Amino acid sequence: MTDSLLEIHTAVLGGMTRGPKPFAKRAETEAEDFPCADLADDTFSQRLTDESDALTVLWERKLTSWDFEERAAWTTAPPRTDERRAEIYGHLGFEDGVRKALTNAVVVSKKPGHTTITAEFTPWYTRERAEARAFYWPAYEKRLRAKGWSSEAIAGLDEASRAVVERLTDPEQVSRRQARGLVVGYVQSGKTANFTGVTAKAIDSGYRLVIILGGTLNLLRKQTQRRLDMELIGQENILRGADPEDLDSLVGIDYIGDDEEWPQFVSHGGRPSALSAFDIERLTTRDRDYQSLLQGIRGIEFEKRERGLPLYDPRNLHHADARVMVVKKNKSVLDKLIKDLKQIQGLLGELPALIIDDESDQASVNTTDPKKWESDRPKRTAINSRIAQLLTLLPRSQYVGYTATPFANVFIDPSDSEDIFPRDFLISLPRPEGYMGVQDFHDLDSLIPYDERTYANSRAKSHVRGIYSPDEIDDKSMQEAMDSFVLTGAMKLYRAAHGVPDGPYRHHTMLVHESVRKDDHAELALRLNTMWHQAGYITNSTGHARLADLFQRDIRPVSQARAADLPAPASYDELRPYISQACSRIRKGGNPVVIVNGDSDKYFDQLDLDFDRQPHVWKILVGGTKLSRGFTVEGLTVTYYRRTTQQADTLMQMGRWFGFRPGYQDLVRLYISRAEKLTKASKSTVDLYEAFEAICLDEETFRDQLAQYAELVDGKPLVTPQEIPPLVSQHLPWLKPSSRTKMYNAQVEEIAGPGQIIEPTAHPLSHVDLAHNTEQWLPLLERLSTTPDTFITHDEAYGKDYHLTALTASVSHAQLMEVLEKLRWWNAAPFLPHLRFLREIAKNSHLIDDWLLITPHYATGRGVSASVRGSVPLALSKRERRRVQIFGYISDRKHRATARRIARATPPTSDPVTERFSRDRRGAILLYPVIEDDPSTVVRNGEVDPGKVAMVFSLVAPASTAAAGRPPISFSAIDKSRSDSPIIDTSG
């Protein structure tokens, strides 16, 4: 039976390619073919109550697409907001009833999108043009929906990949132009999905040669090749006319017969060239990298329909097949490709090409010492030199790098025109739904006291297990990690047996990474094998007693707190039958441990580590470095980590425990050293868990600043890619963002932050300096009111009201500056650029009237309060210096909303107290007297020792100071005598 209403809505929405239009009249026109169709609003609204109804699904996809659309000509409202959705309803002409039904069925996503730092560019990739030639992108989108991607995730990918493609050069453009950009994701977060989307849209629009640089080993290259073949290129382009039923015709064709997921590869329904599209010719296959002459010259030659016209002319371009290759970053492979390209050089000037560099900060960056160059001519490393040659040979080529650790790329010298500095754009991808990253293993902004943290409210307590022994061998923690691996494997099997889809449980792995030395790996593997055979997992009662204890005190309570919706055994006895099954899988092949440290492709081919073709990989992997770039360790559940390095990007890439863990996030465990020698000769130790936390701060600081400076003002970018390097920060003195040979030279001079939170954390340590700072604040404390006010903030995300009871005082800008200028710091550098901005405000007195000083106040009996040198009693807060000598956080995030509204940085609220204090040209200060010791040791007779309290604060400059006309961030060159410090050192 025909669903007439669905067909009408499908036809109407399908015609809205340029945004929403009045719906009713278009529906009435379509309904002429369905005389019995019921177009009543009530009928439509009723069907929307069923989330599985095809009509609901249709509207979910369309509304989400409109919600996410960037720079849409049909709206002035920002994407992913209630304002945007209201404008959509207005264009459609819907009444309140339908609006309410649609909003209930399709909730407006408020999640942040991608961030773009860009140079100016000429728009060419319009939605109309993209729609007119779309073939491979819709096929890829359909494949993602079949994999279970939500409409929200697909819309986000659509917009992020569009942001890349529109900044490339129009492939039909007569003049030559090369764009160079960088896309920054998270470690193991799905960057491949983005560049697959970019590839699909690029070839749809006219790019005819795509070169993907896919890692330094065939292990990585094959993984990328298969993903592209499966999700983009598709069965028909792989078969090239061969009959899948004729075995003789399948000789040399990969996947058929040895890849159980072949039926899931994209099918276009016929050869694309027979469907008014174009074919893709693969110049590499799953098992073969680029081969000189075998597929080389013949494969790269392009036929022109109009021989007298250049290839980039639309009459030729859109009838030519596309060529796609996935090649290793290997000197000999790239030399073969360059040699073949040179033999067809006459055509290369006409060929729109795209070079995608996966893990672009590995091998691609030129790390030679500029001091050793001759005549200032760059001397290039092997892979960097080959990339430069490709860019020279292909004058219409575009370069896009992908990485999770961008610091090496942004430190490239932008004045080197042949290098890969992202001069045209830098795009930061949002954190994906369901992704476990650094933040999921740390309690960065937790306000919960350490002794009150539980598995339910602490990520660290749930997932992280510290190794506190500095000794090289710690069998106790290693045994527990192995026991955890066995138990979590058994938990996966238990869940699969109790109705949970077993797809995510196909592989189960543990990674042990202690050293880079191969001899150490062999020794460690022997140790692990011995430990496995002596563990008593099958028959030994001691082994089962040990597993039962770990299950009861760790696995079971964490799962109860973090995965209450998943089936779980009530006792170890209920789980025990699955222990033997897990052990059987782990020891399959005779050895539960695999060493992963070879340098050749042949070595890796012997490991049976093919997660795509092996039905199950349940192993303990020893090594790490060779798997720390791009390659996805499937099913990774337990990690034992003790490897040190002094580069943040190297350390971050070793975080293989990051990624997607559907159906077993609660089972993930990280055993990490909390006291590891930086080198074998070191006497002191470093905390590797703290190091990852510092990296998280560095990364989030970088991303936050990108977002802050990404907006256009008067159509022009506030910050261009050339000004990105100084935004990189460093929170630990021993952990540099990247190796010294990769770092470019610049520094932040001034940061203007109207309406933004300014929160210095590097407060002093000594009793004398703390007492000095406290003394500076006393004149302002004397101005505090004696009667507290209560501010109310409403959190829309949680539907809650939060209260801030505080004492307040109005202080002039001059009075505040007198305090700030005299403060002492453990490290003054991070606050200095903000202080310079505050000094500039003083030169524009018409932009600021005063500051409202706000300090929390406890009601009687609610907390510890004390006076400072006779001041009114102040609420004392407890904070920890969790990262070397800096505080982990300062202000309560619930208080920040009040401060920003008082500074007129946000719209009006419904709270009369907040609105009474809010005014133009007023800033806000949140002041927290912080103690680090037990109150009984620092408070005597209601007075706190001034040398035992840190007067920490957050500032919000008035929104009015934006009128000062100063750039949001200013830069200067670093003194060449400090060329090893091209970053903001926030280690204090």
Briefly characterize the structure.
This protein is α/β, with parallel strands linked by helices. The protein is 34% helix and 15% strand.
Secondary-structure topology with pairs:
Blueprint lengths: L3 H11 L8 H8 L10 H7 L6 H15 L13 H11 L3 H10 L9 E4 L8 H6 L3 H11 L4 H15 L14 E5 L6 H15 L3 E6 L3 H16 L1 H5 L40 E3 L13 H5 L13 H4 L4 E6 L3 H12 L2 H4 L4 E6 L23 H12 L3 E7 L3 H4 L14 E4 L6 E2 L22 H5 E4 L7 H23 L10 E6 L4 H16 L7 H22 L9 H15 L6 E4 L4 H5 L12 E6 L12 E6 L6 H6 L5 E2 L8 E5 L2 E2 L7 E2 L1 H21 L3 E2 L2 E2 L11 E2 L16 E5 L5 E2 L8 H15 L7 E7 L4 E12 L1 H8 L11 H11 L7 E7 L8 E2 L7 E2 L1 E2 L14 H10 L9 H6 L4 E10 L3 H4 E2 L2 E2 L4 E8 L12 E4 L11 E2 L3
Parallel strand pairs: 2-7, 2-8, 3-5, 3-6, 4-5, 6-7, 10-16, 11-13, 11-14, 12-13, 14-16, 21-35, 26-30, 29-30
Antiparallel strand pairs: 1-8, 9-15, 17-18, 19-20, 22-34, 23-33, 24-25, 25-26, 27-28, 30-33, 31-32
Helix pairs in contact: 1-2, 1-4, 3-6, 4-9, 8-10, 9-10, 10-11, 15-17, 20-22, 20-23, 27-28, 28-29
Describe this structure in words.
By secondary structure, this protein is an alpha/beta fold. Helices cover 34% and strands 15% of the residues. The protein has 32 helices and 35 strands. The strands form 10 sheets. An 8-stranded mixed beta sheet has the order 1-8-2-7-6-3-5-4, sandwiched between helices. Strands 23, 24, 25, 26, 29, 30 and 33 form a 7-stranded mixed beta sheet that branches. A 6-stranded parallel beta sheet has the order 10-16-14-11-13-12. A hairpin with a 2-residue loop joins strand 31 (939-940) and strand 32. Helix 1 runs parallel beside helix 4 (54-68). The relative contact order is 0.08.
